Amino acid sequence: MKITEITIRHLKMKLNAPFTTSFGTFTDKDFLLLEAKDEDGTIGWGESVAFHSPWYNEETLQTNWHMLEDFLIPIILNKDLKHPDEVSELFAPIRKNNMAKSTIEGAVWDIYAQQTNQTLASALGGHKNKIEVGISIGIQKSIDDLVLLVDEYVKEGYKRIKVKIKPGWDVDVMRTLREKFLDVAIMADANSAYRLEDAETLKQLDAFDLTMIEQPLASDDIIDHAQLQKMLKTPICLDESIHSVEDARKAVELGSTKIINIKIGRVGGLTEAKKIHDYCEANGIPVWCGGMLESGIGRAHNVALTTLSNFILPGDTAGSSRYWEKDIIEPEVIVENGFIKVPQTAGIGYAVDREAVKSFTAAKKHYK
Ligand code: OSB
Ligand code: MG
Question: What is the reported pTM?
Fold first, then answer.
């Protein structure tokens, strides 16, 4: 492989409904899409999951653009590559900026899979032909509104319901859901809204048989999470705190987490995501694939990753229509009875709808 041209686009897509977390509300999704061209003409796609504002982590669309233009693209352009695993090695001298790194790495994996005539899933070592998915629901105006939404998604077949919580929108919400949906797998995601001093509140959640509680404490913490886990029956799952297989190992050894949410962008790409998956598999820690309100391109990468064997729990990869009036891939990602069929064409397995991409493009730059 040799990448000879790269195009970066800033896309702006309107969400079907606002999505509220403990750190803020999204109404639109602004993100970078990266198109890479190999010397043989093969085109690969990558999506940056950095948001417009540094709420979830410190990266933003603009910091990603800067990192890509000034550091990462110059490293990759015209370099001979035998395997996509080399990309993370080449990027290693640059600290952090994992979402920016992952944007190129994802496109290189797509090209590699096409050139070796296999699906991205099989290039990664995945064997499932369908994956089980859940859905993540933002904070609502009232518990009644939330109950109606959960009812709708349970009827659509989603295999697990995740709801966002924050102080004041937690114990009563989860109690009501458990009372109304006795047999449904339910979990909560706090996006770091609590401190160890809030342990008494979090302990009350133990009564509702939640599959897990995701990232209750600070985004850079693995010490207090270990303390908290000792006080809770409900398993803790780390999201924001895990950026690498080394972070995963330390958190597991400390007892800070019993389950890990893997997001490709947060960990710097598919190669590192696979390492975390393999470490967790060897150590009896189930994983699942998180979501960042991705367009079809990022969603396709998530589908492929989820085919690996230790993705035991349903992920947040909901169908395209849950987010968008019109997605940028053909066909869109469709969920039936809580399953997504893994596409069987080479690469990411979905065609990019260039007209749709064009209609959402706010800015564009070409590098060669
Ligand atoms: O913490 O998993 C999260 C959305 C934005 C930022 C962080 C998170 C989320 C979600 C939504 O939970 C997952 C999705 O539907 O893509
Ligand atoms: Mg989360």
Answer: 0.98
